[in-house]
Amino acid sequence: MVYCGSNLGALVFSRRNAHSPSVRRGVSDDWLRALPREKTELFDAVVRRWECTYAMMSVALDESLSLRARGELVCARQQVGIAAELFVRLTTSLMSFCDALTTRGRRVHRLPVVEPLNSEFFRSDTGQSAASWNAVLHHVLFGSRSRFFHKLRILSETIERLEGEFDEAADDLSKGLSIHPGECWEQLDVLHYDFNTCLREAEVMFRSFLRALPAEQLPALASALDAAPTPRRQRISPRLSGASI
Predict the structure, then answer these.
(1) What CA–CA distance (Å, rounded) separates 153 from 131?
(2) 8 occurs within a structural domain
(3) pTM greater than the 0.85 cutoff
(4) Domain for residue 24, yes or no?
(5) How many CA atoms within 13 Å lie on the side-chain side of 164?
(6) What is the pLDDT of residues 85-96, one digit of tens each?
């Protein structure tokens, strides 16, 4: 489950809109071209924190699935609880990141070009619905600014919903409350997959934003990203146990 960096091109830049060559060049160029040293250092530091937490969460989830396959259900439930806590930690950080880019983006005259989320890169109903809605509005909105802010908002909301669904499924499994545990375990794998897609999208948007950000605004962005994120535990999606499965 741990993401391999060599897959980024296939994940984010394949299956592009054949009618948008300028968008293809803009997004891919933003990713491939080197950033100035100070911006590279900030990008690497922030992404390193994300990747460390994501790797630990993925390992914990892999271990819980392996324990379940071996019939060690008590240990599997304990391990999935650890995965859920790490999931919350990372989603909170990513949502704060989206907030920071939204705030700082209002001070940037020319925001980077973005592509809409691709529903083919999601497996859950939540992810596919969000991607479809983003794609529709992407072609309705005019100008890179509106598209940039809308994608940030959709990405943040999708991350929050995925975390809520993951946390509730993991909680039901940990407490032995799920009526259909097999479906809950499968759901965790699906949500993990979709969260990986959101994480890669965040990394691409971050790099593109850094390229557009005036150098004098870099310290303010770095301070915002270093600030401790505000915990968010409000649920905005239905429970996965009982009649919802």
Answers:
(1) 12
(2) no
(3) no
(4) no
(5) 17
(6) 999 999 999 999
